[in-house]
């Protein structure tokens, strides 16, 4: 019986964040009201401050753009969310990972420097991009938990191939990238963590 016990101990730390963060909200209507209020507040702030304001009227953007040093404080974006994803921390508590390579040649053994290599890792990561790039994925991008994809400051497009899948994971933030012209992938193996890949 030693085996099931150690199996349980191993699994529990992995599952604990899921229990904490995926519990349904107490009062969905209240969440909707808060979003409404945030939008109203941001709109009013924009009107009253006029052209001198850094405000856009978008409460999420207004939350980070007004900081001139936002590039030095990227993880503060995690506190800017509104609505049902408000508490998602993404890769806030992890390292910054810089994507330098737009290619996606091998979805089972992604190359370091690619977006796919970054998103499958087990550790939390705040993923940014070295330069403007268009990423044509070969297969869908299966994200692991506690990741932020942060395209602020550069122009990043994911297009022309399969796009992003977020399933059975928690704490994902995706901000400031363009995702369009997605095509169906599949009938292929795709890695979703350093230790697992599956048939899609
Ligand atoms: C917020 O709610 C009010 C009244 O319930 C409504 O008139 C208004 O259009 C809503 N605002 C937004 C931004 O959804
Ligand atoms: C909207 O502004 C009011 C007044 O400043 C503030 O009390 C309230 O917390 C704000 N609501 C949101 C959701 O930011």
From TrEMBL:
Keyword Signal (UniProt): yes
Alphabetized GO MF terms: pectate lyase activity
Signal peptide segment: 1-22
Gene3D superfamilies assigned to the protein according to its UniProt record, in alphabetical order: Single-stranded right-handed beta-helix, Pectin lyase-like
Keywords from the UniProt entry: Signal
Entry superkingdom: Eukaryota
Family named by the database record: Belongs to the polysaccharide lyase 1 family.
Name of the protein in question: Pectate lyase
Originating species: Gossypium davidsonii (Davidson's cotton)
